[in-house]
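TOKENISE THE FOLD
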Amino acid sequence: MPDRIPDREQLTDLLSQQWEAIALLVADLDEKAWRRPSPLPGWTLFDVVAHVVGTESWLLGQTPPPHDPLRPKTDVRTLPHVRNEVAVLNEIWVDRLRPLSGKRLLALLDEVTDLRRAALAALDDDAWQALTVSPVGQVPYGRFMRVRLFDCWMHELDLADGIGHPVAEGGARAETAFTELTLGLGRAVVKGAKAPEGARVTIDLTGPVTRQVALAVTDGRGVLLDEADSEPTTLLRLDSGLFARLRGGRSTAEAHLDEIAIEGDVDLGRRLARNLAFTI
């Protein structure tokens, strides 16, 4: 299944909407609420927004603020949830922004995302299609921006779960984010679930994002299919919100076994449910 470069104007608009959704979600938090834990290890609600601010600032060519010499210095590489260089940069931005108030961080989010909107609007088609380094390797800049939408959308869910305020989890932003959520499923099927050669797997998402994801194991690889080509060896049926949280490592299958229906090879289905996570 080929992956097309996202439409520039459409994705830019969705990113703008996503940033607005995050800002609206945290707009009324008091300073104590900003420091509540999020679903992400080691991060508060403040830290989640600081991460968004830091990443978008980095994309503008900015560097993290200098370390305050009056604060203890943290070696972010020693944190248990830091597993790669991308995570190191994320943690540096978060750590340097922590001394700010929530109110100031929210103002900074507005400032940075306004600059990013202007930068994206100034891009031409050549720049949108140009190869660039990203967390998913060297890809066209437009694909990188879809990764950014996915990341920000996931963090909206983190904030909503941490605050205890449900948000709409369907619509165009979610549909676009789900493209990133499903692209790497072949690895989960083969490396995680140990599906045998020739196996067929279907993941049936019941909403608010509704779709069937079909995969085949061919030559030792899990391949996304445009549509199922035979009866599945195993079928998982669950809602898209739970799927997103399992794929994002925010929860575990064991905590939700009664919410995941499995048909066909039950053992294979359970192995897949337990190995969906690809990021945290």
Residues 141-163 form the longest helix (23 residues).
